[in-house]
Amino acid sequence: MEILYLRQALKDVNKVKNSKLKTKLAEIISDIKSANDLSEISSVKKISGHPEAYRIRIGDYRLGIFYSDEIVTVARFLKRNDIYKLFP
């Protein structure tokens, strides 16, 4: 799958200081690139009320993504108590 990154997602990742979390995020991104469909990726859940919005759980953080036509757009990477306020 093709992956696009929104500017705000890159800013969110730069704010994170935990190197283990960044390593896990890199693993998830590589899993997304090699997957044929989102159902092949663990801990992906659809966000209700938004037809193209999904979230991936990474510890206490959530990766907010949009998925349409084999293109994944990484929108936000925030703590679990903040992601639902700012995404989608």
UniProtKB/TrEMBL annotation:
Organism: Polaribacter glomeratus
Taxonomic placement: Bacteria, Pseudomonadati, Bacteroidota, Flavobacteriia, Flavobacteriales
Record InterPro entries: RelE/ParE_toxin_dom_sf, TA_system_RelE_toxin
Name listed for the protein in its UniProt record: Plasmid stabilization protein
